[in-house]
Write a structure and sequence with these properties.
Blueprint lengths: L11 H15 L9 H5 L8 H15 L4 H4 L4 H21 L3 H34 L2 H10 L5 H19 L1 H16 L3 H19 L7 H8 L12 H16 L20 H20 L5 H23 L5 H5 L9 H6 L16 E5 L4 E4 L1 H7 L3 H4 L17 H7 L4 H6 L4 E3 L7 E7 L7 E11 L5 E10 L1 H6 L5 H6 L3 H19 L2 H13 L1 H15 L1 H11 L5 H13 L9 H9 L6 H6 L1 H18 L3
Antiparallel strand pairs: 1-2, 1-6, 3-4, 4-5, 5-6
């Protein structure tokens, strides 16, 4: 059915040209699923009723995506519906011309393309969630905010780390992490927080542009074989220029004052470092599958998920999750005050202040005689102070058979050998430092049904630095422990961004359907034949600032224009960094708009758009100059 029969004053060629122009602005909102070659082999259906209706459905569905936070409709839902309706129209259109099998093969190809993307992203998201569970990102954040850096130094450190971390952890995760650091250090300094957040967005997007793992756009270019893994490296210098140019300009707007350092502390949980190594090993595996075995990178990523699965099994066995320390440590929040630090200022007179503390505690002298047994400990153990003071029987409050307490172990050996011997896999160094330790265990003789206790011990020293005894404090973590869940790799999988993954499916299937009507071929003709690849690829970056870089790159891959390697590198660069020109142009910017609401805003970002655009143009120029496009 041809729409010109309803509008005789507009001929088919005119309609197709108008649609192509509209497509230049709107179809970059879509995702790749079919190659340009596939689109070129389909029947001419671009002027059909089914084709026009498909475009209308897609535009309507995608117009709801930016309104997600206003209407509270997840972005995946409208595009999933649109994808289904568009493929119904594709099937009907092909049925009319007797090409039903072609529609069948086209949708199967699109599903296979999506499956590769889905599996790759699922593994990457699972690893990021696992590292978050192990407090990797929280520990880095705590370290940075406690350094006492000047605001200008924080500006450069967070920008540099964003540029370095983004190629591995992806730009969205990096932006959220560094944005949290900026807000923690900047506090009420709105001007600093706003400019530093802009710097983080630009740096994260730039860092993600020269690595297949830095952004979905680079991942898709790599998976489609347009740019090989090592061929992304020539984009390092242009990407660095893209960040440095606006950063240097914005630097002069940052005051060189030094805010008060935060005392925030956070510790990585057991297995964190191993998981970081496994993540890197998974990346190497994916690259090897693609480069040496000529297998899909997604297969290598799934292999790497097996690494994490096997290690999580080992982790449970080593920690003995039902009684071991790490699950109890997990019940203590990072902001929880270190109990030993409260007593540190009292020196050798700690014992005199034990009854003032809410924590159960006792103190022993150098000969391990009990000198103090506070009221809170009487309540916990049911043993009165007069029964303990002057004796060496403090073990009776916790164990059925005689054995060293943590305080005893601290006194026995300054090297900590006793602590390791008696509390293997159940202890950690206390944040207070020195020879102090934390440990945890289940005590079945405490209370009516046993209790999970966390306890800390440290030597007590006199004014000459001589050890005169040891003190041990306890916390009942029984209730908190019930809130602590074991590390489960399947739970990490379940916490993947399913709305995002389903959104990608809907958009990919939408454009796969639209490409069957030939619209991608029309847009490709206008952009890459009429404008030329360099100008067209520059335009791609500008469009990505308006409608997000991920769908823009998907659209380019759908068109599949005939370009040299240098031009594919150029469009990878522009799609990756062009979104930085507006706050809504990338996932990193949108994420910080939410977390720094009211401070980092669309308007505050827009003020620096000229500087960011200058960096964008400079990065293109550097690429054309050094990479011989």
């Amino acid at each position: 059915m041809n729409l010109s029969m309803f509008f005789p004053q507009i001929n088919s060629a005119s309609l197709r040209f108008v649609l192509a122009v509209v497509g230049l602005l709107l179809l970059p909102l879509t995702a790749f699923a079919e190659t340009g070659g596939a689109a070129a082999n389909v029947p001419e259906l671009s002027a059909s009723f089914y084709g026009y209706l498909s475009i209308a459905i897609f535009i309507l569905a995608y117009s709801l995506v930016p309104l997600e936070n206003n209407i509270h409709l997840l972005k995946s839902k409208p595009v999933l519906v649109a994808a289904g309706l568009i493929w119904i129209l594709v099937a009907l259109a092909f049925k009319e011309i007797g090409a039903t099998e072609q529609a069948h093969h086209a949708i199967k190809h699109a599903i296979i393309e999506y499956a590769e993307l889905f599996l790759f992203l699922l593994v990457a998201m699972t690893y990021i969630n696992a590292l978050e569970d192990r407090n990797v990102f929280q520990a880095l954040r705590a370290y940075l905010v406690s350094r006492g850096y000047s605001l200008r130094k924080v500006f450069w450190v967070t920008g540099a780390l964003s540029f370095v971390i983004s190629p591995i952890a992806d730009n969205l995760t990096t932006a959220l992490l560094m944005g949290a650091v900026v807000m923690a250090v900047g506090g009420s300094n709105i001007r600093f927080v706003s400019i530093a957040c802009i710097n983080v967005v630009v740096a994260a997007n730039a860092g993600g542009a020269f690595s297949p793992f830095g952004d979905i756009t680079t991942l898709m270019v790599w998976q489609k074989g347009k740019v090989e893994f090592l061929q992304f490296l020539p984009l390092f210098v242009p990407s660095l220029v893209n960040w440095l140019v606006p950063a240097v300009i914005m630097n002069f707007a940052i005051p060189n004052e030094i805010p008060e350092a935060s005392q925030e502390k956070s510790f990585m949980k057991r297995g964190a470092k191993v998981m970081m190594v496994l993540f890197l090993a998974t990346i190497v595996t994916a690259v090897s599958f693609h480069s040496f075995l000529h297998l899909p990178p997604a297969a290598g990523m799934m292999f790497g998920l097996g690494y994490l699965g096997m290690y999580s099994f080992y982790l449970k066995k080593v920690e003995g999750r039902t009684v071991m320390a790490d699950s109890i440590f997990g019940g203590r929040s990072d902001a929880h005050q270190n109990p030993l630090s409260v007593l540190q200022a009292y020196g050798k007179d700690i014992g005199e202040h034990l009854n003032d503390q809410p924590y159960p505690a006792f103190m022993i002298d150098k000969e391990k005689n009990v000198t103090h047994w506070n009221t809170a400990l009487e309540n916990l153990t049911g043993i009165k102070a007069e029964e303990m003071i002057g004796t060496k029987d403090h073990w009776k409050g916790f164990y059925k058979d005689q054995r060293p307490t943590l305080a005893d172990a601290v006194l026995e050996d300054e090297s900590g050998a006793g602590v390791r011997q008696h509390y293997q896999n159940k202890y950690r160094d206390n944040p207070m430092g020195g020879k102090s330790y934390d440990a945890a265990n289940y005590f079945d003789n405490i209370g009516n049904s046993g209790a999970y206790l966390m306890f800390s011990a440290a030597p007590v020293v006199d004014e000459n630095g001589e050890t005169v005894g040891a003190v041990e404090l306890f916390e009942d973590m029984t209730e908190k422990r019930e809130e602590v869940k074991e590390f489960d790799v399947m739970e990490r999988v379940s916490r993947a961004e399913w709305d995002t993954l389903l959104f990608f499916y809907g958009v990919i299937m939408c454009v796969a359907g639209l490409s069957q009507f030939g619209y991608m071929a029309i847009v490709s003709e206008l952009m890459y034949n009429d404008l030329g690849p360099t100008w067209a690829n520059g335009l791609v970056g500008v469009l990505s600032a308006i409608v997000d870089n991920i769908p823009v790159m998907f659209a380019v891959l759908t068109m599949d224009p005939a370009m040299s390697l240098g031009q594919w590198q150029l469009v990878t660069l522009t799609a990756g960094v062009g979104g930085s020109m507006l706050a809504i142009g990338s996932a990193a910017g949108v994420a910080l708009l939410g977390t720094a609401r009211g401070v980092y805003t669309f308007a505050s970002h827009l003020k620096w758009t000229p500087a960011i655009a200058l960096g964008y143009v400079a990065s293109i120029g550097v690429h054309l100059l050094i990479n011989g496009v």
